[in-house]
């Protein structure tokens, strides 16, 4: 197999080049680096055009900004009152670029970035910040937010978890169950985030409130203050719901990821109690849970890739079946529309061999 797209390091430089011939040892190394998806050249799927939501230039800018934040905010000497608006200067351009890139996008199809961060902690922080920012920004556009409101929502989503930089890394990356003390320490990240952002020059106070409130839930069971309903800022409700989805669909140190449609079911299970039901519906209607080019295994045992996203049923895409249940390549691949064959389900995403 040859790479269909290059893989970048944290500075935006090419780590593995376009059309590089992959071996199993190289794939194993990339997996250890935390790269979950690869784009592979394949004559059977060359007609499927995968367009990025945001340009590589935007991704590089986001990575650079977030890496600077990691370095500065994690320092014990960092003081927002004397930082001269460093956070705002770092992030304002990134947010503007994200908004510009998303202006003409309709459906959200977001894959993990093909980028190797310096360590697992950095990778987790950067990936989540970017994902939540892109989802929230596009959904904000759908809601009709413009100008300063859209800028604030996008910035809030990018910085919502900044308080985690003040939580001990060994707790955040712990692989076993957390003790009550450790869980209480993690919950403090909302308050740490508020304190970091409220005095930062240029940062709207709403951004600080979103950092504080994104784990509040509309029935009052969230933290840190047990706010209910309209007591929670609408931006914090959006970011909190999206943050949950992103966390569920990506593996963490102590658990495996769940499938995208299972994560949506979990959100719907909390609709009306934990999350605003209209926001959950908007998310489901706008986000392609299974993006174009994603390798999947069906409950029949057959494997293939997502070849088309159905406009009205984004959670039930068209699958191009490439291999039979025994793993043997089909001489004549065929497509199955899951919106028309409701008994066929996606059982797993990704391939051990690391295809699209």
How does this model look, in words?
The relative contact order is 0.12. The chain has 12 helices and 8 strands. The C terminus is likely disordered. It is of the alpha+beta class and 356 residues long. The protein has 3 domains: 41 residues, no CATH class; 231 residues, Hypothetical protein af1432; 63 residues, no CATH class. It is globular and about 65 Å long.
Secondary-structure blueprint of this entry?
Layout (H helix, E strand, L loop, with lengths): L6 E3 L4 E3 L7 H9 L23 H18 L12 H17 L12 E2 L3 H24 L3 H13 L9 H4 L7 H8 L1 H10 L6 H9 L20 H15 L11 H10 L7 H10 L8 E4 L4 E6 L9 E6 L5 E9 L8 E4 L7
Parallel strand pairs: 1-3
Antiparallel strand pairs: 1-2, 4-5, 4-8, 5-6, 6-7
Helix pairs in contact: 2-3, 2-4, 3-4, 3-5, 4-5, 4-10, 5-9, 8-9, 9-10, 10-11
Summarize the structure.
This protein is of the alpha+beta class. It is 41% helix and 10% strand.
Describe the largest sheet.
5 strands, antiparallel
In percent terms, what proportion of residues is strand?
5-15%
Task: Report the principal-axis shape.
Answer: globular
Low-confidence stretches: 113-118, 352-356
CATH superfamily membership of the largest domain, which one? Hypothetical protein af1432
Q: What number of domains?
A: 3
Radius of gyration, CA atoms, in whole angstroms: 20 Å
What number is the mean pLDDT?
86
Please describe the structure with a list of short key phrases separated by commas or semicolons:
single chain; 356 residues; alpha+beta; 10% strand; 5-stranded antiparallel beta sheet; 3 domains
